[in-house]
Design goal:
By secondary structure, the chain is of the alpha+beta class. It contains 11 helices and 18 strands. The strands form 5 sheets. It has a 5-stranded mixed beta sheet, sandwiched between helices. Strands 13-12-11-17-18 form a 5-stranded mixed beta sheet, sandwiched between helices.
Length: 333
């Protein structure tokens, strides 16, 4: 069955790729992991199947994440991954789809070109780019066209994007490479230093999701993990408490808080007054760490709200922007 060119929105995240098709909504949500055979260069698995291989592959198979810190780190693999997802979503098409892709707010021209080229090579007829905080704001249901300030903090896997948006564009923005991945790294380092145990990325992520916090919890919760004892070299099980997670995660969390503070300092006074009235909106999977909203609220004195469907906000915003592609045609390029 041939389909005519569709309009597709892609949230090309460091941790997850979410695809939105105009008229259908979100049709695909997969981890951005690719398993490649290093001898032949052939792609063996993409998405969830490849994620299960992370840290568990033999020498000739490499399971990698082709995006690091919100930008493309391995061009060829990213192109193959995009091609796989586009084919999965669109099937066979007569006309290639028009694709809108989200990018962090402070990327360079070279990084933008890499995204456009990868999508074009993967089969896009035309590629549009939209800044992540703007897409996140649209997805969170904020009317960004009005002349009043809205602040969005989008914490993803590789980057945290902070922007003050008014009249459909970002007035002040900042992008820092501290987000979900950095939280995982902080946990790995902490467990190694305190318990002398080496753990993998996936175990660190499980700890972060289940007992991670950046604000003192009312009740200390615990979780058992297995890793390799660095002294004996043998597998070992230890119990980790949420109070330890607080110690491990507070440093990267404070970097995000400081960055928000820095953006507020550069915000024009009229817009700053709007933000203190309306509050700060948090989106992205990274903002689901327990207590991050309370920490930010305490340090800034401004009300902090977590958007409804935080993980899909950017993809939903891209989808809504797709509805107005013809109007945006001249504007977004």
């Amino acid at each position: 069955m041939f389909k005519f060119g569709q309009d597709v929105g892609i949230d090309l995240g460091t941790a997850t790729v979410i695809v939105y098709v105009k008229g259908k909504g979100i049709v695909l949500r997969e981890p951005s992991v690719v398993a490649v055979d290093s001898n032949t260069g052939e792609v063996l698995a993409v998405g969830g199947e490849a994620r299960r291989m992370l840290g568990r592959t033999p020498g000739n198979i490499i399971a990698t994440r082709p995006l690091r810190d919100g930008v493309i780190s391995d061009y060829t693999v990213t192109e193959k991954m995009l091609k796989y997802f586009i084919n999965k979503v669109c099937g066979k098409f007569v006309f290639s789809p028009r694709i809108m892709i989200c990018i962090p707010s402070q990327v360079t021209e070279v990084e933008k070109k890499a995204v456009i080229d990868a999508a074009t090579q993967a089969g896009a007829r035309k590629v549009y780019l939209i800044e992540e905080p703007i897409a996140a704001a649209i997805g969170a249901g904020i009317d960004i066209a009005k002349p009043c300030g809205n602040m969005v903090v989008d914490i993803g896997g590789g980057t945290t994007d902070i922007a003050v948006i008014s009249l459909g564009g970002s007035v002040v923005s900042s992008s820092l490479k501290v987000a979900g991945d950095k939280f995982d790294e902080a946990i790995v380092k902490y467990i190694k230093k305190k318990h002398n145990i080496a753990i993998g990325e996936r175990t660190a992520e499980d700890l972060k999701v289940n007992i991670g916090c950046v604000y003192p919890k009312m009740q200390d919760v615990e979780m058992d993990i297995r890793g390799r004892d660095l002294i004996t070299g043998l597998p070992k099980t230890v119990t980790i408490h949420s109070s330890e997670m607080l110690e491990a995660l507070i440093e990267p969390a404070m970097m995000i808080v400081d960055a928000v503070h820095g953006v507020l300092e550069r915000t024009p006074p009229e817009l700053a007054a709007d933000i203190s009235d309306k509050g700060i909106y948090m989106t992205g999977g990274g903002c689901l760490i327990d207590g991050l909203d309370r920490l930010l609220q305490e340090k800034t004195g401004i009300n902090v709200m977590i958007a409804q469907d935080t993980v899909s906000c950017v993809a939903l915003g891209t989808g809504k922007a797709l509805e107005n592609l013809d109007i945006l045609d001249g504007k977004i390029r």
